[in-house]
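As a warm-up, study this chain.
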Amino acid sequence: MTVMAPILDSNEKSVGLTVIEVYDHKIEQFRRFILIAAIIVTAVGVILPAILIWIFLDRLVLSPVRSLFGTVNQVEDGNYSARSDIKTNDELGSLATGINHMVQAIEDHTAHLEEQVRLRTVDLQKARDRAEALLLNILPAPIAERLKDNEELIVDRFEDASVLFADIVGFTKFSAKRSPDEVVDMLNRLFSEFDAMCERLGLEKIKTIGDAYMVAGGLPVPNSDHPALVARMALEMQRIVARQLYDGMPLQTRIGIHCGPVIAGVIGTRKFIYDLWGDTVNTASRMESSGRDGTIQVSEVFYQRIKNQFQCSEPRIVNVKGKGEMTCYELMRESSGSGAFRPAAP
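Now compare it with the structure written out below.
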């Protein structure tokens, strides 16, 4: 603090005044306290309202906006069940309601599309299964797989296969006395039983032409016991046909069998079939056409393959068209104790 003091001469008379600064420690502390207090009061008066305003704005505006952004981000990530929980009666509340309605519409539309996709997928799978079943009715399974793999030329040589041709005796006269529906019904029942027997024996149905039925064994998957399987197939075909009556008499079939090398493959690009070629096929066809009604005629080669499992007639010389004289046998029955195949009951 500042104090005025007189200036004295030697006689102690006042000759003037001087200014003396007097320092009081307590007064200085008080001044500092007053200054700090003023600063604090000023800061509180400015900052506290700012904080309160920020909190108010955050709760009223910023937090709902962040919530809306969070909802939008979830929807963008594919979570169509996300909803905004803002329930205020202001513009933000209206915006949140609008967003919720939009997301609900997106969710409903997405669910509808997913259901349509699921139904279409089921339909496509059913169509694919039908096409697969149809293809397997036309071609052997291994050949069908190769065809689906876009293999352009499917041709295989099999060094050992058995081929059977069967024909219904007197079919022309039989069909002449019956309506087309009756004829087709009879053939359908016969050939369906033949097909089932082929599947049970693991043989391959090649084709039918009119009342003729062609079967092969040992292909497309090689099988060493195909002669015995084809012989059993022939005996079963005889039994199946004999159950059909024509003018009170059982129908008969004429069957021919031969074995040897064949060429097998798929021909054509439309209505294609799996077919066989070669001398073995021709000889098997000649065995059928030159055989006697109601018999199973087999070649010498085939007989040698089955003679230990099946009983055959004595050999006979047959003049075969295109082949000349050939030694042939007639298959009679399976030998007892040879592991005979047990057919299904008629």
